[in-house]
Design brief:
- The complex is a heterodimer of chains A (530) and B (593).
- Chain A is an alpha/beta fold and 530 residues long.
- In chain A, 32% of the residues lie in helices and 26% in strands.
- Chain A has a 7-stranded mixed barrel with strand order 7-8-14-17-16-15-13. In chain A, strands 3-2-1-4-5-6 form a 6-stranded mixed sheet, sandwiched between helices.
- In chain A, helix 7 runs parallel beside helix 8.
- The longest helix of chain A has 21 residues.
- Chain B has 593 residues and is of the alpha+beta class.
- In chain B, a hairpin with a 5-residue loop joins strand 17 and strand 18.
- The radius of gyration of chain B is 31 Å and the shape is globular.
- Chains A and B meet through strand 8, strand 9, strand 10, strand 11 and strand 12 of A and helix 5, strand 8, strand 9, strand 11 and strand 12 of B.
- Strand 9 of chain A pairs antiparallel with strand 11 of chain B.
Amino acid sequence: SGASGKRKERGARERKQQDVPAMAPRSESVVVVADVGRTLSDAAGKEVLRIAQAVINNKVLYGGANDSVAVVLFGTTKTGNALHQEMAEGGEGDQYVDVLVVHELQRISTGPSQLLRVLESEAAECGGGKSDFMDALLVAFDILTKEPLPARNKVVVVSDFASAIKEVDEEFLGHVVGGLVDKSCKVELVSVAGPSQPPPEVNSQVMNHLKREAGASVDCAADEEDYAALREVKVVNPFSCGKQELEISGQSVKIPITLYKKVTKSSLSKSLKATGYYLDGEEYRPVARQTEYRKADDKDGDVIQNRIKAYTYGKDLIPIDEATGEHLRQREDKSMRLLGFRARESFPAHSFLGECYVVVPEATNPGAQEALSSLVRAAEHEGQAGVVRFVVRNGNDPCLGALLPQPSEEPDVPDCFILCTLPFAEDLREYQFASLDSSEKWIPSEQELGLAKNIIESMSLMEEGPEGAEVERLVSERIANPSIQNLNAFLVSKLSAKDDEKGKGKGKAQVSAAGPNLRAISQPSDAIQR
Amino acid sequence: MFYDASVIDGEGEDEGTQALRATEERSSEAVCFLVDARHRMFQQTLSDGASCAHHALASLSLYLQSRIIASPNDRAAVILYGTREKRNDYNLDHVYVLHELQPLTARLLRNLSPSHGDENDGGGGGDDGKDGPLVGQLRALSYPGSESHRGLSLKHALWQSSHVLSEATKNRAAKVDKRIFIFTNDDDPCEGQDLLRTQTLGRLADLRALQVDFHLYPLGNPAGEGGSATFRPSFWSHALREANTWKEDEGERFLEEMQLQLADSGVDGASQKRKINRKRRWAATRLKIEAGRNASPLEIEVEYYLMRGQQKVAARYVDAETNALLETSTAYVCSTSGGVVEDQPTKGWSVRGERVLARALEYELIKDVGHLMGFHLLGFKPARCLKPFYQIKPSAFLYPNEKDHPGSCRLFLAFHEQMRAGGQVAICSYAATRGTASGADLVALVPQQEARDSFGNQVEPPGMWVIFLPYADDMRYPELLFRTKKDHVSKASSDQVDKALALVRALQLPEDFECDQVPNPSLQRHYEVLQAVALGEDPTQCTVTDETLPNQALFKGPAQQAALVDFEAAFNFNAKKRKKSAKKTTAPSSKKK
C-alpha cells in the first residue's frame, strides 16, 4: 500500500501536466513492454519476446516516417528507468525496481537496425526478476508523458500476467485511468497464457478495469495459430471510396452513407514497394521502366509519339478519336440506387465477382445510422439481401451488387451492409458438365461414403471451447499471408545484419521458410491429424 | 496519362489467365450460311410485311454482328441456292457463292446488311415493300423456274458447303468449329423424290460425321395465317435427326421450337453483344487429403475452371497519321544515366533510408512459401462459417478429372455427397500450378449439386466452387472507425425496424429479374458505338437500354408507396450539418465563375 501511495502521487502529477492537442497528431509513439519475469516458462518467455519483437519489426517496416519506439523489459534482474531514478533521488529507492528501459523513446529512423535486434541480447541476460506489469505500464506511460512532441500514444504489454501485482486502491487506479484517457493513450495487453491459466484475481480485476475505463484491449495470444506473425501484418487505414447516398425509389428516400473497401488483396509488391536496381560496376543504381511505341510491322523504326486508341472489330482495327471515345464510355457520377430485395440464399458466396465493400452510415448523422440500421435488421430478420446499382466514384462504370446485412451486437459498432459485386451476363462463363452420377462406376459404395464421412468428421475445424462454446479454428482473416511474412523476415535479417558488415553487402539473408504460420496453412495441424 | 500498361500488356493477369486468353483467342468457328434463293423466298411475306429473304438476311446480319464481337477469329461464307445462274468452283448448278469463306470484317458486315446497296439497283424492281436494297439485288438472281429443282439445289448447296468447310480446317493448328445455317421457307424440298431425299439426308449425315453443327432457320408464320405459311416438320425433322419427336401436323410447334433454339444460339434477335468463351479448363491439379499421420494420403485429381471474371475491352494503339498498329516495347532505363539496362533488374526495397537488395535466388526464396502445387486439405467447417466478405477474387470451379485419371470421379463424389449431406465446406491451402508469385492462398471448397431447369438444361453444374479467403493482410475494418474515433452510434428502434420490415417485404424483386443475366450497360454501349463507327453509321445515334436501372414500376404500387412514406417519416437523415453541405454545393459554382 505504501508503494501504491507513491504511485498515486505520480499519477496525479501526470494528470495535471497533460495538454490535449486539438487534432490527433500523425505520428505515433509506442512503448513495447515485454515480460521476462520468473513466472514464465522457457517456451512462454520466448513467445513473449517473439511477439514483442514482431510489434517492433512491424513499426520499423511499416510505421510512419516520424513514429517513435521505446522498449521496456520488466521482471528483469536489473533496474534502469527514469521513474525509479526520480523516486530514488527522493529517497525511495524501492520503487519501480526490476524495470529496465532497453531502448529509449526515439524516432525509428535514427537506428532501425538496432531496434530489430533489441530483444536478442539484453533479454536473455537479465530475466528472472519480480516487478509486475503495473509498474511497467506506469514506466511506459511516464516515458510517453515526457515526450515533448505531440504524438498518438500507445503502450503494448506482452506478458503471461501471472505475477500478482501489488495491492492497488481504487483511487489510485482511477488516477492511472484518468491519465491514460487524458493522454488518449491506447493500451494493448497481450497475454501468452492459455485459457487454462487464468491470471490471479487481482490482476484480472485491474485488467478488466483498464479494459472498461481506459478502452484497453486484452488479447489472448494463445488463441491464435501464430499471434506473432499477425502482429507483423501491415495495418492499413480503411480506405473510403467516398460519401454518397443510398437512394430508394428515385427521389424520395436518400440515406447518407460512406462506402469503404472491405477486403483488398495484398501482395508482395503492394505490401512494400520494390524498386528495380542494376549493378553498375560496384554501385547499384535504380532503374525505371519505360514504354515506347513503334509500328508493329517496323519494329526498328521511329518511336511514334502521336497515337490514338483503337479497338478490334473482327479482323479490323477501328481507330477511335477522342470525340468518339467520349461516346464509348458511360461516365456516371457516383450513386447507389436500390433495385429491390431478394432472398439471401439467391446469393451464395461463389456468385460474386470478388470485389467487396462495406456500406457504413454517415458518421455524426443519427438519422442515417438509424435508417441503415433498420434496413440491416429488417433484411437480416427476413433473410433478405438488397440489390443495388452502384457507381463507386465519379466517372466510373455502373455495377450491380448485393447488400448483405451485417448487424452488430456491439453498441459502438454500427449496423452495416456488406456490398458484394454481382457479375453481369458477360462476366459469366456458362460451361456444361456431365452429371457426376452419369456412369455406374462413378458412384461410390456405401463403404467409401462412410470413409469420406469419417474423414470429414475427424478433420473438423470446430472445437468445443470453454463453457460449451464452439471455437472455430483456422480462421483465414486471423492468419498472416506467408509470402509477406517471408518478405518481412528477409528484410529484418538483412537490415539487422547491416551494422556488422556495413557496405560489404554480405549480410546473410535468412528467409524463414517454415515459420509456424506457414506450417498452419501447408498441412493439417497436429490437433486434427490423429 | 491514359496509358494503362496492365490492360495492354496483360499485366495483373497471372500466367494461367493469359494462357487461357490466348487459347480462347485462337479458337474459331467457320460458318456456312445457306440461303434459299428460290422465287418463293422473295414472294412469301411474313406477318410484318417483309419477305422471307429479307428475314433471312436480317437474321444473318444480326448474327454476324454479334459473332464479330463474340469470336473475332470466325470466318463466314454466304451461299445462295436455287438461283438461275451458278457461281462456284465446282460447277454445281443453282449454287451461287455470294461471299467466299472469309474473316469477319466491317466490310463484309456492311455488304451483308439488308439496308446496304443502292435503292435503284434492285433488278427485280417493283414490289420491294419492307425489304431492304440488298434483297432487291438478290431478287435478280432468282427465277420462277427454281421451284422445279428444289431438292437438287439443296443437295448441291450442301456439297458446296462441305467443300468449303473441309478447306476451312486445313492448315489450322487450333480447333475450328464448323457450322451450317440453312435459311428456308421450304418445308419439304424433296417432295415426292425419294432418291433425292435419301441422297440429301445422306449428305447431311456425312456432314455430321465431319462434326459440322447443323442449324435450320425455318421461315413461316408461327401464328399459322393461311395453311401454306406453316412449316411441316416431315423432312427437316429427319434432317435434324429429331424425327421421333415431331408428328406431321405439328407445324407450328416445330417452327416455334426451332426459332427458340436459334434465339438461344444467338441468330434471332441477337441484340446483346458479348465475347464468348469456349469451355476450357484452366489447369489440371489435385486435392491432397492427409487424413491421419499414418494413413497414406488420398489424392483426388481435379480440373480447375474459371467460370467468372470481369469482361473488359482492351484498347490497342495506332499511329494517328497512318492508322498503323503500334506495338509497345518496354525497357529498364537507368534513372541516373538514362542508359538502357539489358539484364533483369535486381529487386530492392528502401526501409528507413536503408536499401535492401535481393539477389535473384533470394527473391525466389521470398516468393517460394514451400507449398506444393495443388490443394491441401486442412480440415472441414460448417458452411455457415463462410462470411459474406470472403470475396478476394472471383471463385473458380473444380470438377473431377476422370478423363486423365479414371477413378477420380468416384472419390470426388464420395466427398461431394458427404460434404453436402453434412453442410460442410473444406478448408484448403492452394498454390496455383502456374506462376509462383502468387504464393499460397487459403480457399474453401463448397460442393454444388447439379440443377436443371424445367427444360432439362443444366443451370448449375455439379462440382465444387473454390472460394478464395482473405488473409489478415487483406482485411479492412472501416466499421470499427466509429469505435476508434469515439463517434456516437445510433441503432434503429424496434418501431423503426418494423417500418423497414414493411419496406423490405414490399420491395421484392420480380421473379423474372435475374441478377446475373443483366448485360453490362457500359460494355453494350462500347460495342454499339464501335459497331456504328465500323459500319460507317453515326455513333451519336446509338442507344443502349440500361437494364441495371431500378424498375420504377416496382416502387409505384400503393403498398410500396405506403411503405416508402412510412419509412421516410420514421427518420430524419437529412438534418445534416449544414455547414458542410453548403460548402459542397457552392464549391463547383464558384469554380465556374
